[in-house]
């Protein structure tokens, strides 16, 4: 399952989460984000016991995008114990996301 | 052994697959990022049959169409290509795959400026895709680098979001279509910095300024929040050398009008291919046409030059 993250629930769902959280920063106007979306959903399903996955719309929640310096989307950041541990800018394909997750879990 | 392996998941590769499927050529398609550069395009207004369609949507339809005919799309990164007995080998991170013929459709990637600070600030103010990233620069100051169609149309697009837009071009004249240049000047929001170059990108956590070759308004540095590099593309042809495929001076694969390379059994299509004697044309429709022709040439390879007889309407 993919969570919908916002400026409001980010602290609770990501920063204070016990498990690692993968956050996909995206927007409706971004082409590569549309390609990344289904891949992120598939990965969420495949790793649901180990990692939490959420999507944050940068138009609706600009504060978090700004806070984590997102200036190009899609950007995927993996947080662990409240800290940013991995960052991937641009859509690199499923394999690369997979690798990113494996390095954390 | 496959009859055909197509490398590249953009317009050329997907179209080649649609035709290969209909010619009943057993094949695989390798596309690390399905959709290729087409997914980065804004609105496409010159693909026949659509008045206007977003690039990603067009690519999604094309991928669905290719899949409908049964192709297996492997999202694996191709690491090496080699000649083997009776064909070719494609090595990915996961496994080696053998094939009798190849269609090379890896496309092109963005050309970079190769200046200090450029790599360091990718995603932190440096972008190669204005369409993708400019909405994140609302009310900011940005610069577009380049003088072709993509640079000028990017500046126009940027002016819809940014507070101020500079366009920095190393010549006095643009290569872009005059109609675009005219439109850009009419906005009154885009400042032209001509006959000048960016020598360095400076910043801290993110981009802060550009160092110019020549002073602009008595200043060597231009304060910006973002810089969008739109100076064309380079073919992704580094993998093909072990095959003995001939490249032109710019690194594009030389092909005949049948999309054949100098190596029998190897074809190329789309942005990576340069049809000898033809214009280097980088469009959705030319990539699609290249892909179709390449698949037809593969068919001819297996049928002693016979004209392809597709099974139109046979499969669903």
List the helices and strands and how they pair.
The complex is a heterodimer of chains A (105) and B (316).
Chain A (H helix, E strand, L loop, with lengths): L1 E4 L4 H6 L5 E6 L4 H16 L5 E6 L4 H6 L7 E6 L2 E7 L4 H11 L1
Parallel strand pairs in A: 1-3, 2-3
Antiparallel strand pairs in A: 2-4, 4-5
Chain B lengths: L1 E6 L3 H12 L4 E4 L12 E2 L8 E2 H14 L3 E3 L3 E7 L2 E6 L3 E9 L3 E3 L15 E2 L2 H4 L7 E5 L3 H11 L4 E6 L8 H10 L2 E5 L3 E6 L3 E10 L2 E5 L2 E4 L3 E3 L17 E3 L10 E3 L4 E3 L8 H19 L14
Helix pairs in contact in B: 1-2, 1-6, 4-5
Which secondary-structure class do the elements of chain A indicate? alpha/beta
What is the domain tally of chain B? 2
Level of helix content of chain B?
A: 10-25%
The rough form of chain B would be described as: elongated
Kindly provide the radius of gyration of chain A, computed on alpha-carbon positions and rounded to a whole number of angstroms: 12 Å
Q: Tell me the span between the first and last alpha carbons of chain B.
A: 26 Å
| CATH homologous superfamily caption of the largest domain in chain B | FAD/NAD(P)-binding domain
The CATH architecture name of the largest domain in chain B reads: 3-Layer(bba) Sandwich
Annotation, overall tally of beta strands of chain B? 21
Helix segment tally of chain A: 4
C-alpha geometry of chain A: globular
Mean pLDDT of chain A: 92
Note poorly predicted spans of chain A: none
Number of strands of chain A: 5
Oligomeric status: heterodimer
